[in-house]
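Hey,

The postdoc asked me to send both predictions to you directly instead of through the lab channel. I've kept everything plain text so nothing gets mangled by the mail client. Protein one:
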Amino acid sequence: MSHVYVVGHKNPDTDTVASAIGLAELNNLTDPDNFYAPARLGKVNAQTEWALKKSGAKSPKQISHIMLRVKDVMKKELVSAKRDDPLRNVGLAMSRGNIGQVPIVDRDGILCGIITERDLARMYIRESREASSFADSPAWVHLIVEVLEGEILAGEDRKIDGQLWVISMSEESMGTQMAEGDVVIVGDRTGAQKRAIELGVSVLVISNNCKPEKEILELAKKKGTTVILSPMDSYVTSRMIQLSVPCWEVMSENPLTVEPDTLISEITQSVMEVHYRAAIAVDENKVPVGVISRTDLINPEPRKVALVDHSEVGQSIAGVEKANIVEILDHHHIGDIETRTPLKATFDPVGSTATLILERFRLAGLDPERSTAMMLLSAVLSDTVILNSPTTTDRDRAVVKYLEEYLELDAEEFGMEMFEASSDVTGLSAEEIVSRDAKEYKVGAGETICIAQVETVGKALLERKDELLETLENARAKAGYMLYALMVTDIIDQGTELLCAGECALVERAFDVKANAGVIDLPGVMSRKKQVAPRLLSAF
């Protein structure tokens, strides 16, 4: 099941948050092939916080980008081996899983090394023209028994650091090469078995399940030789014994590790530089949780996102241009977001995106959860200023009426309670006021303007006019905007005082009104989307 984030614009307002919650809930009911998760791009404002608390809805998860992370592309079906496991376990794991590397962990599951196909190949190539030796990579009797699936007939567990021999010569010539501490493989030749023990070999392995005579076992006990019975022939037995070396003897230490939340763009070069072309993803305790290889980094499937209440790159989540946008649902103008594939897109001139979502619920014959319904009502009343904004349509009124009956409350009283509870910004800094509901707009030639809006009950906020104008100018200069404007909208008087920093002369011409100390009086103006942004964009 694919994971799809449903996310609105930066500086999330009530409509953005409610729409993300509502669309995610609706799509999870109607699209079983995907899982939709609501998200937000910043801290919620006071109004949205009130709506979330009032409704009991869970605040969407805050995310900062939609770019691919290690955990989005790594292989999570991890195959690992313990450091004391025989090397054969690693070889089998590679073969069964068609993988080129196996992370090695200690007894606590913590990563301590890695073994790759290259490590195995080097081991065989190094020994291919000489007698196999355990001098550099000692083995143990219990590991030899494990890989052979054999049994110990005499002697005990011990460390092996000699050479490995398969006897095909006469008994008389055996002493010319083999020596004490070696491992000897022989079949049902009693004389050769006796000769090997007399030479002082550490381990005698008898192949083909040929149990030795009693005198051979008694001699082995007397000489301190361990005798192992193997069910396989001499050739296979020798190959298996070479794979009895414990993993820690062969593994490479300090393998390349990454964290699951790291961006793949940050680790690609490192993965390409290590010879095994992979990295081990580990958690905060250094326990392996996945493997990301070079092939995982070639044309990975981008993350999926559905956009609500906006369609502009400048207002959207970081990395949206590389994401797989599956849907856009908005009530603004069509923005500049480009997509690589066809998608479901709705741009409908109603007062609120939440209106479109409730209409979809109705069309599907479904009702939202009570908490979601209350969030959607809050959003419609917020964006339409309790149905008083010129952006309000009959469809918004119909949605409010339906939700009013569904929730058994008075929508106008609910809306006034919401605005009164969230319009007091006296405790906020000027920086918070001018940025908490701000939207950017491109005006051509690479220039950008920003329009923020705050809804109030009464004109007390204008007593901080000088502080707000200074803050607007500082923010404008820092961001490089041509204009930064703040709409102070009084929902009772139904008008706006527009504070501006930057190219204010163009704002005056757009509204044919002179500014008074940086403030333009706009009676009857309530909507940024319909009454302010279009005129400013035309003027610029």
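Protein two:
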Amino acid sequence: MTISDWADQNRRLSSEASAEPGQWRTSRAEYQRGIMEAVSDAATETVVIMSSSQVGKTEVVNNCVGYHIDQDPAPIMVVMPTERDAETWSKDRFSPMARDTPCLQDKIANPKSRDGNNKILHKRFPGGHLTIVGANAPSGLASRPIRLLLCDEVDRYPFSAGAEGDPVNLAKKRTVTFWNRKIVLVSTPTNKGASRIEAAFEESDQRRFWVPCPECGHEQILTWGQVKWDKDGNGGHRPETARYHCAECDAPWKDETRWAAISKGRWIADAPFNGTAGFHLNEIYSPWVRLEAMAKAFLSARAGGDETMKTFINTSLGETWMESGEAPDWQRLQGLKEDWSAGTVPAGGLFLTAGVDVQKDRIEVDVWAWGKGLQSWLIDHIVIDGGPGEQACWQKLTDLLGRTWAHASGTPMTIARLAIDTGYETAAVYAWARQVGFGQVAPIKGLEGFNRASPVMGPTFVDATIAGKRLRRGARLWTIATSTFKAETYRFLRLDPPEVTSTADGERFPTGFLHLPGWVDAEWLKQLTAEQLVTVKNKRGFAKLEWQKLRERNEALDCRVYARAAAWILGADRWSDARWEELAAQFVVADAKGTTSAGSPQLARKAQVRRVARSTYMG
């Protein structure tokens, strides 16, 4: 009896754990049969499932556990990303299955009994036991020998289980004493080059589910590129018309036709079998998902930017996300430079930020203007000679806070927020920031890794009294995920300008377009494109994404990242359209008659004499 046969005969789906409670039917999602048969196959040692959500992969894991408890007792371990996830799976998934599947009821002790055979994370049955652990608990992973190892959502596992190393490898060591061991790895993928499930799938025979066309019979892998929908007369999308088109004859499949075709599909391997069976699935195969819902999710993800699109790629298409870290060609940027007067702000710029990089013998500053849709313009590049050890150098930086740049409307603008790196001469940076105040200055510290949900965190107080009490007027530090802003900058640099840049209603550039002035030189462009995102392996053999320099100097890129962080701190990423329109209304460019009208917006305030209050703190 295979696992699928056992499930069809015995498995009962519980109402609190399934949208379709009652008798299990493998034919409901025919692709699951091949996966469960691979787990049952004695010649297969490892099964890898790289898939989207909503395809029933967790229920496959549940069937494997139930089958072995009933038909082939053995020591079983289920590994979840965290101990909390382990408890949730035990309570919400396993316990209802054990309660509602008749053949399992007598094999698992009553949870209300006091004999200790049915705990939340450890359950005994005749001939074996089930241990449920979190990947973040090294003691649980290394506790006992295991014959059947089931690892769910492996891409969400921590980098290391304490100091023991990779949790998947640690769990695999528990199976070495069994000649008939079985290892099942399941997950939706994450970032390309750093995905455990992708690496495991590439070492497998890479099976994909081929589906015959109901019209022409042509077998094909279902891909997102073949999903199409109509538009209305105004160009608006109509996701309710979404359907799948045959790659051969272009015949449209409605949802019911697609589901019927999938029931006749089969698994075909792309690589030789070496003891590891790999399976890849996306949400198009799911009998519980309509293409209308996928189309709506895609349109929402595309409008939401990288973070939401990454979620769609990972959880709906079951594919890894490629970070946009390839360095753009600086020579291409040379040809995209635009002409506007040096030191002036074009009409689209609505507020200014500055990024400051502190070096041993100089301080470099780039001033950027920002507009709606996070379009940006490089306004000024300033090099202050002398270094952080000279007071005159800091005085020039202070003077820069009161300097003005003329907007195209004639309104003078000052820097709304200046972000300065604290990585070099940290104490000197804090001292200067305390002196000028934190209303206009944000000391920052860069952290490795991607965090699009919250790429800027803080501020945290880094000054305290001897007793450890935070000082209200002490230094405040912001931490930023530099990798996120570097990838975003390179993505913006790859955008193409519109074919016609001047229309009756103004210039139309894509969201995030990065405008470069004609006065910027080749050296600055080379610094802006000085890094590359590469995949490297650490000493334990685990891959991760890392930014590496292509050339020594990269100050332009660093200053851009800091200025972008300053815009985030101001809240520009979270402003509503009404907020942007309110800000834009305060800048009126001269009309054909030469008349102008300009307000004094908060973020572009007029020049004023700076009042510096000297604190007695620090003497």
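Summary for protein two, as requested: The longest strand covers residues 376-385.

Thanks,
C.
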